[in-house]
Specification:
The chain has one domain: Rossmann fold (3-Layer(aba) Sandwich), CATH 3.40.50.9100. 37% of the residues are buried. The protein has a 5-stranded parallel beta sheet with strand order 2-1-3-4-5, sandwiched between helices. The chain has 153 residues and is α/β, with parallel strands linked by helices. The chain is built from 5 helices and 5 strands; from the N terminus they run βααβαβαββα. The radius of gyration is 14 Å and the shape is globular. The two termini are 17 Å apart. The protein binds 1,3,4-trihydroxy-5-OXO-cyclohexanecarboxylic acid. 1,3,4-trihydroxy-5-OXO-cyclohexanecarboxylic acid (DQA) binds next to loops.
């Protein structure tokens, strides 16, 4: 089994392609997931992809990922928490509590947008953050996570 990464997308990212294309571009979530699979394959890894609009389901996914990282069956998580980035202490606690390596990704440059997007509850718990590179940020996150985890191994 090649090393596995979880690609986890939060609320409204299922609408990519139709949602505010001037901000998020025209690629769909399926395009993003394909891009991640290709980036992982180039590094000898594979991906599993999940998306949820529900905070609790994202927390369950992070806790499950933490158990799998501890068991050696998962490398870590590339996570776009969507708007929960800016609101969720629970996601922060889940990442810390589950001790799961997470690279946080945002398609848009959240720091160049509204003030309420400037703060992330996730970033202090993340192993790395990629912001503002469009969907190519997912590829950068996959590569960064694999390199960081291989360096740590
Ligand atoms: C986002 C940025 C968030 O502020 C927003 O709520 C999203 C998408 C991004 O990928 O740029 O849903 O995470």
């Amino acid at each position: 089994m090649p090393p596995t990464l979880l690609i986890l997308n939060g609320p409204n990212l299922n609408l990519l392609g139709q949602r505010e294309p001037a901000v998020y571009g025209s690629a769909t979530l399926a395009d993003v997931e394909r891009l991640c699979a290709e980036a992982a394959a180039a590094l000898g890894c594979q991906v599993e992809c999940r998306q949820s609009n529900h905070e609790g389901e994202l927390i369950d996914a992070l806790q499950d990922a933490g158990r799998r990282v501890a068991a050696g069956t998962l490398l870590g998580v590339v996570f776009n928490p969507g708007a929960y980035t800016h609101t969720s202490v629970a996601l922060h606690d889940a990442i810390k509590g589950a001790q799961v390596p997470v690279v946080e990704v945002h398609i848009s440059n959240v720091h160049a947008r509204e003030a309420f997007r400037h703060h992330s509850f996730v970033s202090p718990a993340a192993a790395g953050v990629v912001v503002g590179f469009g969907i190519d940020g997912y590829r950068l996150a996959v590569e960064g996570l694999v390199r960081q985890r291989r360096g740590a191994a």
